[in-house]
Amino acid sequence: MNSTPIHSPSGAGQTQDPNSTSVVAIRDLSHSYEIATGDLTVLSHVDLEIERGEIVAVTGPSGAGKTTLLSLMGGLDRVQRGTLQVCGHELATLSGDELAEYRRTTVGFVFQDFGLLPTLNAAENIELALTLAGVARRQRHRRALELLDQVGLSARADHRPSALSGGESQRVAIARALANDPQVVLADEPTGNLDELASGRILAMLMELPKDRGCTVVMVTHNTSIARQCDREFVLASPSEVVS
Predict the structure, then answer these.
(1) CB 27, CB 83: distance < 8 Å
(2) Cβ-count burial of 18 within 10 angstroms (0-12 exposed, 13-18 middle, 19+ buried)?
(3) Which side of the chain, N or C, has fewer Cβ within a 10 Å radius?
């Protein structure tokens, strides 16, 4: 595993190699939030490339912008400065509708808090992602059951999140993330709320995605043991530590 810092002020003015095979290509990416005392910079001049089928850990101290980077890659936040291409999509140029379509078809999300709707059972939580993609009712129910079987939860299809353990909830969340066959899975501290046994099972599932589904996996984690198991680790420094 390689460990590479990804705050790089030398990236200004770079453009993506037209012959690049990167699934993710980031150049000179900076991002800030407006707070009461002014603008808070959380990302500064980030350069990063990720190849198809890689499992990449993004690490760094709290406040370094790890979740913001994942949100930008997922089209949840707008690119402010720099370029961010995912699977050929230049996210800075997409309209709101195009970003919504990108989120439905290109990326899948796995969150630390699972993000399941409490009023829906496991199958229905997965079906919701398929509903948003316009999949017919019978087909989406069949697909949800197939995915639950693949994560070992066929017997929990009609259970609501309150009746599931943390590990089971995260397995449902992974199944939901895979519902529309994404090319990139973005996982934000996916084992952060789980015990050691459940964490190991979730991590094993994520590690198998490139082989089983051809996905690229980008995972934010504070866990150094998890980061060491990934193909590469990108250490995101605090913007205050970047020398311009």
Answers:
(1) yes
(2) exposed
(3) C
